[in-house]
């Protein structure tokens, strides 16, 4: 059984997957469509991009980062989630998908802003506000059901990409802390940062020497230069109620 299945490969789900996968948890992201951010025309309030960034390019880069971290991906819409054993949530959850094989995971992160109907059998505490549903969570994104978490806009977070990314990361870390992973911080520090003070490198942290630091910087610059070399072809997705007469 997988450690964690993340429903929704948008901003919050991908951010969560980076943290769970980097902490060594077997992480699957299942996504049934498109992040709502694909509708954006120019992402200008995401820190780190002084003149903004194409939102679809940004999503592409986050997916690549999640893959590099070790997360795996499946396409499919989750239609139902329930415990493997009603009497013991430690046994994890089974997720039904439209058309695919059922998926099992010890923990589930719901990061699927546009749809949370599949959570109904679990009774996690969905709240209706107008036409939208939200899920009630604690500080770590934990719902009323042990082992089930919610992240991003679905968890009533403000409707901005950086907030969704931050919240997804926080929920990913809560999952790591609730699991058996030996973890302190996900940090990469210069060689000697801990060891020259006679401290062990804490779990989850790494020390790298200057050669390795330069090699990583070289790779990072190459990746970004290639990613930004050409304009991104995809256009924003229009709201479904706007008709396209072209
Ligand atoms: C027109 C527009 C412009 C915007 N502009 C900005 C902006 O300029 N700056 C900014 O910060 N924010 C902007 N946003 C808001 C931003 O896009 C969201 O706040 C952010 O994407 C929320 O992230 P999320 O992970 O909660 O949801 P999403 O990114 O929408 O991810 C949810 C994912 O879950 C998947 N999913 C849903 N149901 C299921 C299911 N049953 N099974 C499997 N997968 C499922 C979806 O396919 C999707 O990929 C804009 C939004 C819109 C609509």
UniProtKB/TrEMBL annotation:
Gene3D superfamilies: FAD/NAD(P)-binding domain (3.50.50.60). Keywords: Flavoprotein, Oxidoreductase. GO terms for molecular function: oxidoreductase activity. Residues 200-223 are annotated as: Disordered. InterPro entries: FAD/NAD-bd_sf, FAD/NAD-binding_dom, Ferredoxin-NADP_redctase_2. Residues 62-168 form the FAD/NAD(P)-binding domain. The keyword Oxidoreductase applies. It comes from the Archaea. This is Thioredoxin reductase. It comes from Natronolimnobius baerhuensis.
């Amino acid at each position: 059984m997988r450690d964690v299945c993340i429903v929704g490969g948008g901003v919050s789900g991908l951010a969560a997957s980076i943290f769970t996968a980097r902490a060594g948890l077997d992480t699957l992201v299942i996504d049934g469509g498109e992040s709502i951010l694909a509708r954006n025309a120019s992402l200008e309030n995401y820190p780190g991009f002084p003149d903004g960034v194409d939102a679809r390019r940004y999503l592409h880069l986050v997916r690549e980062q999640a893959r590099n971290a070790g997360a795996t991906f499946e396409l499919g819409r989750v239609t139902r989630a329930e415990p493997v054993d009603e009497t013991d949530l430690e046994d994890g959850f089974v997720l039904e998908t439209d058309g695919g094989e059922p998926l099992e995971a010890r923990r589930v992160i719901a990061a699927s802003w546009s749809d949370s109907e599949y959570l109904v059998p679990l009774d996690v505490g969905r709240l209706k506000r107008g036409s939208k549903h939200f899920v009630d969570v604690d500080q770590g994104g934990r719902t009323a059901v042990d082992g089930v978490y919610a992240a991003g806009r679905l968890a009533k977070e403000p409707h901005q990409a950086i907030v969704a990314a931050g919240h997804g990361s926080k929920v990913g870390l809560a999952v790591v802390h609730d699991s058996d992973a030996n973890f302190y911080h996900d940090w990469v520090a210069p060689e000697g940062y801990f060891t020259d003070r006679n401290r062990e490198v804490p779990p989850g942290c790494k020390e790298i020497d200057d050669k390795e630091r330069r090699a990583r910087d070289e790779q990072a610059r190459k990746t970004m230069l290639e990613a930004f070399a050409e304009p991104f072809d995809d256009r924003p997705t229009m709201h479904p109620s706007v008709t396209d007469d072209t």
